[in-house]
Amino acid sequence: MSPRRLFIAGAVALFALAPFVLPIGYVTPLTYIGLSALVCIGLVLMTGVAAMTSFGQAAFCGVAAYSTAVLTTQYGWSVFATLPVALAVTVLFAVALGALTVRLAGHYLVLGTLAWGIALFYLFANIPVLGGFNGITDIPPVSIGEAALTDPRDFYLLIWGLVGLAMLAVTNLLDSRIGRAMRSLPSEVLAESFGVSTARLKLIVFVLAAFLAGLSGWLQAHYVRVVNPSPFGVNASIDYLFMAVIGGTGNLGGAILGPAVFETVRTWLREWLPLLTGRTGSYEITAFGLLVIILIQGAPAGLMSFVSRFLPSKQPVKAPASAPALPRRPLPERGTPLLEVDCVSKVFGGLRAVDDVSFDMKAGEILGLIGPNGAGKSTLFNLLTGVASLTSGTVRFMGTRIETLAQRDIAALGVGRTFQHVQLRPQMSALENAAFGANLRGSAGVFAAMARADRAEEAQILRVAQDQLERVGLGHLADVEAGNLALGQQRVLEIARALAFDPALLLLDEPAAGLRHQEKQDLAALLSDLREQGLSILLVEHDMDFVMNLVDRLVVVDFGVKIAEGDPASVRANPRVIEAYLGGVDDPIDGPLDGLAEVRP
């Protein structure tokens, strides 16, 4: 057993023994910490993984708490019979609110969650059947058979058992295909480029977080046996968010450490500050706020980032030595039409960034797209991949019009890409980043991942990722976090990720930038091999020596206009190209140029 697993087993044993060796005065606070931890696990998923901030999680606790309170006190339902209903109602609320909220970004998302958090609080307080601000009392305790869990020690074990199951399920989820997709959500362009429906996946994360909050609310209702609006208002949601931030939203352990520190410090301040100052009042709120500010300044990644240095490290994800091959995408026959760009234009305000550009590409060739800085190459790249929409024109890929398709739909047709500015998840290993490229090659869902029923598929994906890393010369760096790689290695890692995608067309945006001379030669050899294997490559690059010795044909753009198209030798000698790069030529240009398609600038 690894040191980390031994540590986790020891921690579980200590938590299990705690209620039997600690005074009851310690068991009750630990129980409340467990209730908060369930909510914070969901907040780690939302905030630390999917980059969504919520000020409304306490409201979801309230939805489940009020659901079970009404069913047990007014309709005579048994306690456990209310659990699936309470969670289902919470999920329905989450789906309805999430569908309106998750498409928002930045402060709009924060304001959206704040708005419905306030709305639900006043809904709880103003519906007569819910008891108004006095709430509902005499809620029955949880019973197992004839035994009611009225002893705090028994309820402690139930709550922390569920916390452990939630931690295990979310850990399994994050170590899966869909978990890597979730970790890509902070960059929506990256996620969509590899087939992820970001809106749908954000909604899934949102609902999972609400589910955990609802579970906490259900437990709280039967532990306290009183439900009123106060614990489910915006203040409570802010407390939960503080807990997650204090613990560290980038680490699941922070979902336990944060509530523990939060509740301990707040209780200590409430008890000792009046004694130390000789004054009464809510001074602990001010003092606690100052402490949180100091903590955020000193440990912006949360306390878990500091504590984890002294804990056994997690074993890196490893690819199996062998696994059944994933199905491959059939490549189009060499020489057949692959990409047809017809009169494509893009206008930003009054600026024509791309102006009536047309070219085509055959299967099995490497086509270079070059031009001076600001020529419109990246804009054209974005138009081809669905990042930006066309103002006019058409684009066909293997006979299918794609100019109106979303990024993920274009990717699903077989268009893989890298980025001008490296788009990797820095805290994921090189192997995990490459494995994300195979996102569309798997199908296991959330529940399969949580239960580890996806391990056979995961082994196939990791094997593909390792093979592609070795293919590009990064096999020995599979365990290294992407953020610790040199820029040139990161660019090559992007190519490995794109190859794991199994594309029919590979779009490379300045892949040689940051590479040393030998690395460029190795990359050129790799791309040549890919061409020989039938892969089609569209390349944007500034290194002219690299391009000229590699590509079959070139398209040159300047100020958004195509000025030349042809083989490398003829383009190199083209006066229009020379003028675009050097700013002028000695002789005027009259008539068509040998070896080039005549183009009207």
Reconstruct the topology from this structure:
Elements: H1 3-21, H2 24-49, H3 57-74, H4 79-101, H5 107-126, E1 143-144, E2 147-148, H6 152-174, H7 177-183, H8 188-193, H9 198-224, H10 234-247, H11 254-277, H12 283-298, H13 303-307, E3 337-348, E4 351-362, E5 366-370, H14 377-385, E6 392-397, E7 400-401, H15 407-412, E8 415-417, H16 430-436, H17 446-450, H18 455-471, H19 487-500, E9 505-509, H20 517-532, E10 536-540, H21 544-548, E11 553-558, E12 561-566, H22 568-572, H23 575-582
Parallel strand pairs: 5-10, 5-11, 8-9, 9-10
Antiparallel strand pairs: 1-2, 3-4, 3-6, 6-7, 11-12
Helix pairs in contact: 1-6, 2-6, 2-9, 2-10, 2-11, 3-4, 3-5, 3-9, 4-9, 6-9, 10-11, 11-12, 16-18, 16-19, 18-19
Description:
The strands form 3 sheets. This protein has a 6-stranded mixed β-sheet with strand order 8-9-10-5-11-12, with helices on both faces. The model is unreliable at 585-601 (pLDDT under 50). It is elongated and about 85 Å long. Helix content is 53%, strand content 11%. Helix 2 (24-49) crosses helix 10 (234-247), helix 3 packs parallel to helix 5 (107-126) and helix 18 packs across helix 19 (487-500). The longest helix is centred in the middle third of the chain and has 27 residues, at 198-224. The N and C termini lie far apart (69 Å). It has a domain at 3-310: ABC transporter involved in vitamin B12 uptake, BtuC, CATH 1.10.3470. The protein is α/β, with parallel strands linked by helices and 601 residues long. It has 23 helices and 12 strands. Pfam families: ABC_tran (PF00005), BCA_ABC_TP_C (PF12399), BPD_transp_2 (PF02653). It is a multi-pass membrane protein. Keywords: ATP-binding, Cell membrane, Membrane, Nucleotide-binding, Transmembrane, Transmembrane helix, Transport. Belongs to the ABC transporter superfamily. Residues 339-584 form the ABC transporter domain.
